[in-house]
Amino acid sequence: MEKEHEIIDKLQQFLKEDVLETKVPRDRRVFVSIRPEALKKAVGFLVNDLEFKHLSTITGSDLGEDLELIYHLAYKGSIELSVKTTIPKNNPSVPTITDAIPGAVLYEREVHDLLGVVFEGHPDLSPLILPEDWPQGVYPLRKEEKFEELRKIGSK
Amino acid sequence: MGYGSTIKVPFGPQHPALKEPANFIFDVDGDIVVGIKPRIGYNHRGMEKAFELRTYLQNVYLAERICGICSDAHATAYVQGVEELLGAEVPPRAKYIRVIVAELERLHSHSLWVGVAAHEIGFDTLFMYLWRDREAVMNLLELISGNRVHYAMNTIGGVRRDIPADLIPKIKQALDFLEERTKYYLNMVKTEQTILKRTVGVGVLPPKDAVDLCAVGPTLRASGIKNDVRADDPYAAYGEIPFNVITHDQGDVFSRMLVRVEEMLESVNMTRYALDHMPAGMIRVKVPMAVPKGEAVSRVEAPRGELIHYAKSNGTTKLERYKVRSPTLGNIPAVCKTLMGGHLADVPIILAGIDPCFSCMDRMAFVDVKTSKHWVWTTQELKRHTSK
Amino acid sequence: MKAFDWARTKSPWVIHFNTGGCNGCDIELVAALTPGFDVERFGILLEGSPRHADILAVTGPVTSQVKDRLVRIYEQMPEPKHVVAIGACALSGAPFKDCYCVHGGIDTILPVDAYVPGCPPKPEAIIDGIAKLIGKLKKGEEVGKGT
Q1: Which positions in chain C have a beta carbon within 8 angstroms of at least one beta carbon in chain B?
Q2: Does residue C142 lie in a domain region?
Q3: Does B198 reside within a domain?
Q4: Which H, E and C letters describe B304-341, residue by residue?
C-alpha cells in the first residue's frame, strides 16, 4: 500500500488544507475528499504530475442538502483514486474538467441529466440519456424525485 | 467533437413526421463526416434508481440484466463491490469459477462481435460460421450454469453452482474445438481481402487520443496502450492465472479485430489453466442481509473494456446509491473522434469497431452543412445509400 | 413436423424490434437464424422493412424513448399483422417494471398475439412461439391476448 499512501502525501502537500479527508480501504483503492474550489487544481495536478490520465467515470449522488461528485481516476489502469467533493444543491455548479481530460465530456453530461449539476465551461450540456420530452428541472437521481412521480412522467 | 443542430426532421416514407430519437447526429458535407454529437438514451431504463429499491440479493438479478452479452461481468462487478462493503472473504474455489465463467463469456462475446463485424462488411458466410461455432461456448455456459444467457452463477459471497469434476473433460473438449476454430479465424482475418480492405487503416485512433478520451478495452489496446483490468487491478483469481495482455499498435478497426480474436485464444488458455488449478473447497460463504455503511469501487474487465461500479451502503438492507459505467459509454468519445473526417460508408464498421450494444447504435441523424437538409437513417439505410 | 405444413404455403416474414431490453433476447433471436437453429428452413425470413412484414417480433420492456417508434412500425405493417412478444421484459416489463422510463410489457402498447416467456427464451423456444402463432393463423383460429 506504499504507492497509495505516497499519492495521498503528494496530494496533501499540493492542496494543503483543501484536502478534507483521506482513506485507503484496501490495495489499489484511495478515497480523497476535497473542497470544490480546489477541484480544477487537483485534477490538473493528478493528470499532469501524478499520471492519473484515465477517468473511469464521474459519480453524482444526492446527500440531501448537498450533491456529491466523485471523480474516479486510474493510475496506469491500476490504482483507482476517487476524488470526492460536495456542492450545495441550491447552487450545484463546478468547473468542467474536459480541458484537462477530454474524455470527461459524456460523464459530465450524464451527471447533469440525472442530478442537475452544471459543469461550467462544458462545450455542450444538452441531454444525453433522458427522453426527448422529459420535463426540465426533473432530475431523476435526486432523492426528492419519488418513483411514482417519475413513473408517471416516463410512461406518458 | 463538432456539435450540430439538434433539430432533426425525419426523411422518407418510412418515417412520417414525428420526433425520432437518434443515437448520433452527424453533420455531413457531401460524403464526409464533419461533426458528430452523441445522444444515447434509447436503452435508458433508470436502473441506477431501481437498484435503490431492491435488497442486495435481488439486485444481483438486476445487475445481470444491465446487458445480455456481458451479464456476468456486471454481476461480478456488483457482487465484488458488495463483498468489499461486507468485508466478506470469497472462497478461492469460487474465485476460480468466476474466472472460468467470465472467460467463457468473453469467448462468446468476442465471437459474436467478429460475426457482427463480418456482417457489417457484408461477409455473411463468416458471420454464419462464427455464430455456428459460438454455439460451442453457449452449450458450455448452459452445461455449467443451466442457462445460455444470464447464467446466475454469481451471488454475494461466492458462486451458486460448482463445476463438478465430471464436467471438466467436456469443457476441455469444447475448448480444444474452439481453439482450433479461433486459430482458423485468426488466419482468415489476417489474409482475407474482403476484411482487410474494409478495416485496415479505417477508423484510426492514435494512442494519445485513446488516452485523452479515456477509451477502454480492445479499442484502447488496439491503439497500443497496454491496460487491462485483469492484469492491472486483478480481481477474482486473475492474480494467479498467467496470461498475455494483447495489444496492437495500428489503432484501426483491423487492429481491434485482431485484439479480440487473439484475446479469444488467451481466454481458452486461461480457462484451461483455471480448470487445472482450481482449488478444492467451499463455493460460497453466508453473508448478512444488512450491509454496514461504506463505499466501494468495483472494476472488472468486461469483454468490451473496463467496467466500473460504485456502491454506497447506509447500514440497511438496501443500497444508498449505485453507479454503473459500462465500457461502451467509455468508448463513445473515442469513436466520435475516429469518425470525424471519414466517409459515411465507413460509419457502420467504425461504430461496430468499439463493439457497442446492438440496439444502442442503430439510429443516426444527419445534417448536411451545405444544404441544411436533415434526415434520420437506420444503419441499413446508410449502407444502402453508401453502397451505390 | 408441424412446421413443414405451413412452410409449404406462405412463408412469414418477421421484423424484429428491440424496445430497450438488455439484448439477451435479441441475440437469441439472431442465433435462431444461424446454422445451429436455422429458422430459414421453416420459411421464416427476418425482414428489414415493416412494409413487407407479417409478424412483428418484439423484445424489451418498452422505454419511453422508443414507444412512438414501436407504434409507428406497427402502423406501417400491412394487414393482416401479428405481434409476438419475446422474453420476460416484453411480456410484462420483468425486472424493469418499476423503473421510470419503462412502460412495461408490449401489450400495454400493442395487441399481442403470442407470448414467448424466458429470460431470455432459447432460440428453440422463440422459433416454437412463432411457429405456434403461424399454426393458429393457418387454422384460422382466433388469436389475441393470452394465446
Answers
A1: 18, 20-28, 30-31, 34-36, 48-51, 60-61, 63, 65-66, 68-69, 72, 76, 94-96, 98-102, 119-120, 122
A2: no
A3: yes
A4: CEEEEEEEEECCCCEEEEEEEECHHHHHHHHHHHHHCC
